[in-house]
Design goal:
heterodimer, A: 448 residues, alpha+beta, 8-stranded antiparallel sheet, 4-stranded antiparallel sheet, 15 helices, globular, B: 157 residues, 3 helices, binds FE2/S2 (inorganic) cluster, binds fe (ii) ion
């Protein structure tokens, strides 16, 4: 018996603001509805246009549980398509990326498609003559997704035909993507390598929540960042002239005290977006890279260059499932595979025209913090997996998000608050509720 | 140095890991030694190409101390590991540059609570002689599925 399908009130009741019901993390039916409702109703990231440089280049992705394909057509455009043969449904592309040449060819019966999705040819075409095939959806090829928007090279897609426009959905939150891209003297980002992939046995939202959880680093990461600081202090005592190496610069700020995070602030935007590190962040004290500031000044002028580099936002959530870290040019993609299974792909952008040292730092940060071989990652994953198990307890069915809650808290607002507030997590859940029940068919049990 | 010494070194090194003698293991590295786990096929550059690990003595020391930490929650209960090694192939006796090179096919198993995770691939050793003893200049681990999404890999392959 469905408890939540077709029952928007039951879904809304899971979100109390200062607390959310455990079902949002552990209930399989809620997970199914996220795939059917939340993800199609949202603008979702699928990749970067630099992954599609040449005609015939393609990438594959998933929105909710639906397979997606994006390719560069010979008209220079990127088309986003359903990755599903119109014949018997076979997935056309099974690789994460590649070049298909002039057309896609289905491996089952060799129907072929142009890189804009349209049907190119069918073997034994004669057999379809006079069958009414031309009027069927199958004759149109791979269905094209209409709502696609490329912003500073990042490709976003909304599956649902109806919904918020790209601008209304993201609003001012796009300033983080702008800042990340502006850090390139040419204003452009590029992907030239594979992501680090990390499998998590937990609900995808635990990762999203954690990105603006500033009360955990000094506790959960004492084992990794804390040890790194200790080892460094000993090395330094033995050799006082040593400057902290890049590795220590990256690890040490994780141990910043509560007051640091409180003062750094959190900014929230409507529709679940928000970021930590408003007036400072763990990324603020990295050593300057030779020649970089001068390049930026030449590209943007003195004032603007300092503005760009002075904005050191920590983690920006683009609801529902990516996080962007501007100062190290990292994008993390939290891909839900099951109610308690999440694939995390962490990408590092290269800033076009910037010194290699910045790319080196991004790659180093990524493997120190976001890799299955990262000790910081081990600390976090341990907590998510314990939460996934702990939430089975009937001792308390609610997850507490009470920190700096105000009963008059607006569900849609732009605001700056204390940096240890759980406001951004609540902000995500207000949006979660909104997009879960938007366009919801209230007739229980109907198949779409 | 004889070929047998290189082969013994590889087996003995794996033994220190399987016995969880982390300090002894760390001491096998040269001062400028590195531990590298690439993320790309036949990767050449550990700096401007992404890796799963590329660590110097300082970073390896952090890992080793962390394993003993009271608040290392992901090591409650502690992981254990096992190396199953094929006979190492000696690639170079250091004729030109004094660097001995050995390549070893492996199966590696690591525990996490009740779970077992298994990895396989090749270990490349670059060894140098310092004060009469072999030391690791580079230990490189090429996983066959370097591009797969793993859960935690907490110990050392
Ligand atoms: S399923 Fe694709 S051609 Fe038949
Ligand atoms: Fe963390």
């Amino acid at each position: 018996m469905d408890r939540y399908r077709g029952n928007p009130q039951a879904i809304a009741d899971l979100i109390k603001g200062y607390a959310v019901h455990r079902d949002v993390y552990v209930d399989p039916e809620i997970f199914e509805l996220e795939m059917e409702q939340l993800f199609p109703n949202s603008w979702v990231y699928i990749g970067h246009e630099s992954q599609l440089k040449n005609t015939g280049d393609f990438i594959t992705s998933k929105i909710g549980n639906q397979p997606i394909l994006a390719s560069r057509h010979r008209d220079g455009q990127i088309y986003v398509l359903h990755n599903r043969c119109p014949h018997k449904g076979v997935k056309i592309s099974s690789e994460p990326c590649g070049n298909t040449g002039k057309f896609f060819r289905c491996p089952y019966h060799a129907w072929s498609f142009k890189t804009d999705g349209s049907l190119l040819a069918i073997p034994l075409k004669k057999g379809y003559e006079g069958t009414g095939f031309d009027a069927d959806q199958a004759s149109k090829g791979l269905p094209r997704i209409r709502n696609v928007r490329i912003y500073r090279g990042l490709i976003f897609v909304r599956l649902a035909d109806e919904g918020l426009s790209f601008e209304d959905y993201f609003g001012d939150s796009l300033s983080t993507i702008d800042n990340m891209a502006d850090r390139s003297p040419q204003g452009e980002l590029e992907i030239i390598s594979q992501p680090i992939r990390y499998m998590h046995s937990c609900n995808w939202k635990m990762l999203v929540d954690n990105q603006t959880d500033t009360c955990h680093p000094m506790v959960a990461h004492e084992s990794s960042a804390g040890t790194a600081v200790n080892v460094w202090e000993r090395a330094k005592a033995a050799n006082p002239d040593m400057d902290p190496p890049m590795a220590v610069q990256l690890y040490a700020p994780f141990m910043s005290p509560y007051e640091f995070y409180e003062g750094a602030g959190i900014r929230v935007w409507p529709n679940g977006h928000g970021h930590s590190g408003v007036s400072g962040s763990i990324h603020q004290d990295y050593e300057d890279v030779d020649g970089y500031l001068q390049m930026m000044v030449e590209a943007y002028g003195e004032k603007r260059a300092h503005e760009i580099l002075g904005d050191v936002r920590h983690n920006t959530i683009y609801f529902p499932n990516i996080m962007v870290k501007g100062p190290v040019a990292i994008l993390r993609h939290f891909i839900p595979l099951g109610v308690n299974k999440t694939l995390v792909e962490s990408w590092v952008f290269k800033l076009k025209g910037a010194p290699d040292k910045l790319y080196e730092r991004g790659l180093m940060y990524n493997r120190f913090i976001n890799a299955p071989t990262s000790i910081v990652g081990h600390d976090d994953l341990e907590m998510y997996e314990r939460a996934q198990e702990g939430l089975q307890s009937d001792g308390n069915k609610w997850v507490n998000l009470h920190r700096l809650w105000d009963e008059n808290e607006p569900e849609e607002a732009t605001d700056i608050v204390n940096g240890t507030s759980e406001r951004q997590m609540r902000n995500q859940f207000y949006a979660w509720k909104k997009f879960m029940i938007q366009n919801m068919d209230t007739k229980a049990g109907t198949a779409g | 140095m004889k070929r047998e010494d290189l082969v013994d070194f590889v087996y003995d090194e794996a033994h220190t890991l399987d016995q969880m003698e982390w300090e002894t293991w760390l001491a096998l590295f040269a001062e400028d030694g590195r531990y590298w786990m690439p993320l790309e096929w036949q990767q050449e550059d550990p700096i401007l190409q992404p890796s799963l690990m590329y660590e110097d003595r300082l970073l390896l020391t952090v890992r080793v101390e962390r394993l003993a930490g009271e608040r290392t929650f992901s090591q409650k209960p502690k992981s254990r590991c096992h190396h199953l090694l094929e006979r190492p192939r000696v690639i170079s006796m250091g004729e030109d540059d004094g660097v001995y090179k050995v390549r070893t096919s492996f199966l590696y198993t690591e525990t996490r609570g009740d779970l077992l995770d298994r990895y396989s691939g090749w270990i490349g050793h670059e060894l140098v002689e310092i004060d009469g003893a072999l030391k690791i200049r580079l230990k490189r681990i090429d996983l066959i599925n370097f591009d797969a999404p793993f859960s935690n890999i907490q110990l050392f392959i």
